[in-house]
Specification:
This protein is α/β, with parallel strands linked by helices and 259 residues long. It contains ten helices and ten strands. It has a six-stranded mixed β-sheet with strand order 6-7-8-3-9-10, sandwiched between helices. Keywords: ATP-binding, Nucleotide-binding, Transport.
Length: 259
Amino acid sequence: MIRVESLHRHFGGFRAVDGASLTIKTGSITGLVGPNGAGKTTLFNVIAGALPPTSGRVLMEGEDITGLAPHQLFHKGLLRTFQIAHEFSSMSCRENLMMVPGGQTGEGLWASWFQRGRIAQEEAALLKKADEVLDFLTISHLKDEKAGNLSGGQKKLLELGRTMMVEARIVFLDEVGAGVNRTLLNTIGDAILRLNRERGYTFCMIEHDMEFIGRLCDPVIVMAEGRVLAEGSVEEIKANEAVIEAYLGTGLKNKDMVG
């Protein structure tokens, strides 16, 4: 689905992404791991249109999408979530979800005056869909809660829910497990697996929790110093000498990165 070809992103003399090439297959849950500073988030930012590449290409099902803006990629079904969830804190969870789809009739001044019936129909459909999403994510009990009052893990679930309000095809998850307790992390993992298996979502996720990666991801791609270092199953990655060497000194070796 996504092919990255010899991608570079430089900041002055610093090469955050330095000739990375990789493929994300349709229907996969691909893990992206590597030491801090490996270039993972910068790579996500370039793919998702937040940063232009210095050189190289990004293709989606053969179409060159290099440098397209996030809103253009959104309409192609490419979405990205963030390490720190972004929500409308003063709005309810249900309202946060209903805000997602673009092109709503009520966005126009003329329509808001003269097409109130159509607007009411759209809002009813959005309300129904939002409630279905909240139920799918097992957080329907929070539908009227202000999003700003949610825990970190609940905000991550809500952000995942926003991808369900549109026709997402591939979702890039940036450290969805960061700051999330194990119970909620399992709930998030269950939702990702169901979206993948039941709705055909393709995922690529940056994550440091190797247990979480091991449960969800195949393949796993390892980055180091802006390049792709290795690719394989979790077990293959853990046994890879080059990967072990790349992680030395980061502390991850002592967190079961290599066994």
